[in-house]
Amino acid sequence: MAKKALVTGITGQDGAYLAQLLLEKGYEVHGLARRSSTSDVNLTRLEWLGIEREVRITDGDLLDLSGLVRTMQDVKPDEVYNLGAQSFVKSSWQQPILTGQVTGLGVTNVLEAVRLEKSDARFYQASSSEMYGLIQEPMQSETTPFYPRSPYAVAKLYGHWLTINYRESFGLHASSGILFNHESPLRGIEFVTRKVTDAVARIKLGMAKELRLGNIDAKRDWGHSKDYVRAMWMMLQQDVADDYVIATGRTTTVRDMCKIAFNHAGLNIDDHLIIDPVLFRPAEVDVLLGNPQKAKEKFGWEPKITLEEMIVEMVEADLKRLSK
Ligand code: NAP
Ligand code: F7E
């Protein structure tokens, strides 16, 4: 019998790559997705990977406990991956309550559905390096204290601790992956890497002249979504649930990440980049650098794709998309 997985956030970047990985491993993949009046369900990313017909989509919302319980009853998954969230940090100051409800309380709803209906299902929570915020150690590991700097990060911290609490209180096999930034050609256009690679492609094709950014001195530990969804799956294959940092162990400024994209396209960054104060955040996370040693030691996870390879892949994908 094929194993069954239920993925919330299946229409997002990680949901799409995780679904692809699970299908390759022979899983029956179910995804929770929000219906909208404009398109039934937005399956663009699954279509990009050519797997939209292989996943089974169920209407649902993280705010709706009864729907989640019904989905758990119907699917009876062996593994539940909670990837759904309002995930854009900047929007979380504009919509702090919604972010708290979806990104924070939504975790309680999924954990409750698991506890009420199929408590032996293994659970994965998409925690975030944003929880470290104002960093308390130069390199962040599972033992580094948290200091969240946005409503998004505060909501993620709630979900993180709730996952630990349900593991300790009810014995659920609930693991939390503290994932550092990860990107891909399927990254949302509002995040800085994709904003940059899309702009570079537009400038190259004569469709735009400038790129406006905020704080380009911020540093991030960037990896590839494909590598990171593999870590999610590996976590749930462990006998004992636990929490793991997933990162590359290398940090780069937004400015240097941009240079990789501009250089690849044969463009000079200084001819096109404009700093726009409107794009700065009320509170910034200046630098993140993760230590993935525990994941390496416990289950042999290591990233395979470098930042340079990933940015080049993203620029090429945007050139292809825009040339159509
Ligand atoms: P993403 O592309 O923004 O995808 C978010 C997903 O959540 C989408 O499928 C979205 O559905 C869904 N969603 C939003 N509100 C929902 C609701 N009320 N009910 C049900 N689903 C809802 O995010 P991602 O980059 O794939 O990240 C996946 C998860 O990892 C998120 O929880 C994110 O916070 C976390 N994370 C991401 C990173 C990163 O660097 N990518 C790092 C650490 C943690 P729609 O398509 O309908 O909007
Ligand atoms: O910003 C700076 C910005 O929006 C990265 C989410 O997946 O990773 C992501 O959160 C940095 C910040 O990602 C622009 O100020 C400058 O310092 O790509 P981002 P994020 O905020 O780090 C974490 C781990 C998550 O969990 C989140 O869900 O880039 N920056 N200028 C800019 N950022 C954006 N978006 N746009 C700019 O114009």
Structure write-up:
The protein is of the alpha/beta class and 324 residues long. The protein folds into 2 domains: 202 residues, NAD(P)-binding Rossmann-like Domain (Rossmann fold, 3-Layer(aba) Sandwich), CATH 3.40.50; 90 residues, Alpha-Beta Complex (UDP-galactose 4-epimerase, domain 1). The chain contains 11 helices and 13 strands. It has a 7-stranded parallel sheet with strand order 3-2-1-4-5-6-11, with helices on both faces. It has a two-stranded parallel ribbon with strand order 7-10. A two-stranded parallel ribbon has the order 8-13. α2 links the parallel β2 and β3. α3 runs parallel beside α5 and α9 crosses α11. It starts with a strand and ends with a helix. The model has no long low-confidence stretch (mean pLDDT 97). Bound molecules: NADP nicotinamide-adenine-dinucleotide phosphate (NAP) and ligand F7E. Ligand F7E binds next to α7. NADP nicotinamide-adenine-dinucleotide phosphate binds next to α1 and β5.
Number of domains: 2
Structural class: alpha/beta
What form results from the Cα inertia axes?
globular
Mean pLDDT across every amino acid position: 97
Order of the strands making up the biggest sheet? 3-2-1-4-5-6-11
Bound molecules: NADP nicotinamide-adenine-dinucleotide phosphate, ligand F7E
The fourth-level CATH homologous superfamily of the largest domain is: NAD(P)-binding Rossmann-like Domain
Give the assembly state of these chains: single chain
- Give the topology string: H per helix, E per strand: EHEHEHEHHEHEEHEEEHEEHEHH
CATH topology of the largest domain: Rossmann fold
Determine Rg (CA atoms, Å): 19 Å
Number of helices: 11
What share of the residues lie within helices? 40-55%
The biggest beta sheet reads: 7 strands, parallel
CATH hierarchy: architecture of the largest domain: 3-Layer(aba) Sandwich
Question: Could you list the spans in which at least 5 consecutive residues all have pLDDT below 50?
Answer: none
Give the tally of β-strands.
Answer: 13
- The fraction of residues in strands falls at 15-25%
The first-to-last residue Cα distance is 42 Å
CATH class of the largest domain: Alpha Beta
